[in-house]
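Fill in residues.
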């Protein structure tokens, strides 16, 4: 049976650099680009933007790293009129979308999602219909959507960025649906490659394992929950991983770990934190590299 390889990439803001670090080391060991190795790409938020670059622009992992440079991260986090008078409450999204779109435009130009060289699917959420949206390169409905609009929509994280308007739809970050999009990708790939054996590499962005105070949480309102990373709690469920393991079995590898010193905040672009994120990706290679190479080997 012919084999097809799926790459799934989580959202996670700046922590996506850990995934990219792992891919750099994978490329170095394989001697070829990730965009050549994999046949189908699925991602959420920051992971989705990387998947668009891999599938539509044939980026190498080194080029991905350049796209997520400190300079570009600074551009994408251009502050809006963040409300300070109300303390932790804010009246507007923390960042504008202009800087993010400028960076996406620089790397993607006017390329449409339908121009991708390999099938790609990215997750978003329609707030008017209250339904998940899978933007794909192979859908007639999505064919005129640009990579810039798609990348803006999938990463429009509530609180951080404004809702993105794509055509007549108002879309937000796909993490609302599934920050770990492996099951969506697997189902889609089964449709495209019905008679093939599917092998899946899923890359996370670290898990916050900091315990919360159960008794104190009984008194938390919106401010209390926001102080304790409500959005992080929503996107870090392990359920999709457990289901994928049961469904796909030995043809599935999940690369992830506890944050281990990395800031849980998705937008900490400080140099010390970025170094810790990269170090986390290097540790992932030490722990999962050989297993990943075996998964991708044509002999298996």
């Amino acid at each position: 049976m012919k084999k097809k390889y799926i790459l799934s990439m989580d959202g996670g803001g700046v922590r996506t650099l850990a995934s990219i670090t792992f891919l750099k080391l994978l490329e170095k060991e394989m001697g070829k680009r990730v965009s050549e190795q994999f046949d189908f790409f699925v991602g959420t938020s920051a992971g989705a933007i990387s998947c668009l670059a891999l599938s539509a622009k044939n980026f190498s992992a080194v080029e991905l790293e350049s796209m997520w440079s400190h300079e570009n991260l600074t551009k994408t986090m251009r502050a809006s009129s963040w409300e300070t008078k109300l303390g932790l409450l804010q009246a507007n999204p923390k960042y504008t979308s202009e800087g993010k779109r400028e960076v996406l435009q620089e790397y993607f130009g006017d390329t449409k999602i339908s121009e991708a060289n390999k099938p790609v699917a990215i997750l978003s959420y329609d707030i008017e219909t209250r339904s998940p949206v899978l933007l794909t390169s192979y859908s007639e409905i999505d064919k005129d959507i640009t990579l810039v609009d798609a990348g803006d929509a999938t990463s429009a994280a509530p609180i951080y960025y404004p809702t993105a308007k794509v055509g007549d739809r108002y879309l937000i970050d796909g993490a609302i649906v599934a920050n770990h999009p492996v099951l969506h990708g697997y189902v889609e790939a089964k449709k495209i490659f019905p008679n093939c054996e599917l092998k899946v590499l899923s890359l996370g962005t670290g898990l916050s394992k900091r315990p919360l105070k159960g008794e104190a949480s009984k008194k938390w309102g919106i401010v209390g929950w926001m102080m304790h990373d409500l959005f992080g709690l929503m996107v870090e469920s392990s359920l999709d991983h457990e289901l994928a393991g049961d469904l796909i079995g030995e043809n599935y590898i999940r690369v992830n770990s506890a944050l281990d010193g990395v800031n849980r905040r998705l937008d900490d672009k400080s140099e010390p934190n970025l170094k810790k994120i990269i170090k986390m990706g290097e540790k992932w290679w030490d722990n999962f590299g050989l297993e990943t190479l075996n998964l991708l080997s044509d002999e298996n």
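The first helix runs from residue 16 to 30.
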